[in-house]
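Exercise 7b. Backbone tokens:
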């Protein structure tokens, strides 16, 4: 059992939990993830490590309340316990040897992008962060991004905060102004990452994306997280979650991600009835 040390609502649909998990905290690196089960009988879900406090033995995860299991997880309060918390899993993001990197985050994907931006900055890279949200009410982690970025672009779809537009608008403007990036790292909705990669392909900029498909065991045994990358089958849990964005078949990934939408909807309704929810 793993104790919830801290709970904070970042916006109406996104929650931060700090969990006591010293063995995970001792080894986890930016880009890796854990698989947790909120309570006995619950489902396994993968969540990227959003931060670690090695001295306190604590791991931070940030999640969006979208389905049955995240509703159950959101019901946890400080002092409650999470049934299982396994990790770190996956390959860490490459963060060494870069001079200048653009980190692009969309929505709750910013929770994954932040530790990557932080690790890049700690390794001497100049970090330009571009983060996007639908509106002002959904903005998260703004101050944290500012603290590790020499350039910070805040975008909202409706213009209610920062600049109006998409993250690709800001990225294009920076590139066309003369910024030269060793790499672009994009983390967020599949459609967002697809169009970031389409943009960077125009300029020949290496682009890494973090993939979060359906995942069950986190060891490559179930095959649920398979992706087509460069015409070959890869497993996000062991081969990723980071991949060359110019080689990912995003259309296939988007199609596979919607396979269980009806089942997930029914499970969400039941979880709302039992635990309350959005």
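Sequence design result:
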């Amino acid at each position: 059992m793993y104790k919830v040390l801290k709970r904070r609502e970042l916006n109406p649909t996104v929650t931060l939990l700090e969990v006591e998990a010293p063995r995970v905290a001792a080894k986890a690196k930016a880009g890796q993830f854990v698989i947790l089960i909120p309570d006995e009988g619950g489902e396994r879900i993968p969540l990227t490590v959003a931060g670690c406090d090695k001295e306190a033995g604590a791991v931070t995860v940030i999640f969006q309340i979208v389905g049955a299991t995240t509703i159950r997880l959101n019901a946890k309060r400080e002092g409650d316990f999470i049934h299982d918390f396994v990790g770190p899993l996956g390959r860490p993001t490459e963060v060494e040897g870069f001079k200048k990197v653009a980190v692009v985050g969309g929505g709750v994907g910013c929770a994954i992008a932040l530790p990557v931006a932080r690790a890049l900055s700690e390794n001497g890279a100049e970090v330009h962060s571009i983060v996007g949200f639908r509106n002002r009410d959904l903005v998260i982690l703004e101050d944290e991004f500012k603290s590790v970025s020499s350039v910070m672009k805040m975008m909202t779809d409706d213009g209610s905060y920062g600049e109006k537009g998409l993250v690709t608008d800001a990225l294009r403007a920076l590139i066309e102004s003369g910024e030269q990036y060793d790499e672009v790292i994009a983390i967020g909705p599949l459609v967002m990452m697809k169009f970031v990669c389409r943009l960077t392909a125009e300029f020949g900029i290496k682009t890494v994306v973090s993939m979060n498909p359906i995942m069950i065991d986190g060891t490559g045994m179930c095959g649920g997280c398979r992706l087509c990358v460069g015409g070959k089958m890869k497993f996000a849990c062991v081969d990723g979650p980071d991949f060359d964005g110019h080689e990912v078949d995003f259309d296939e990934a988007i199609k596979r991600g919607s396979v269980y939408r009806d089942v997930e909807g029914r499970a969400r309704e039941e979880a709302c009835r039992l635990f309350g929810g959005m």
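Instructor comment: The first helix runs from residue 22 to 27. The chain has a mean pLDDT of 89.
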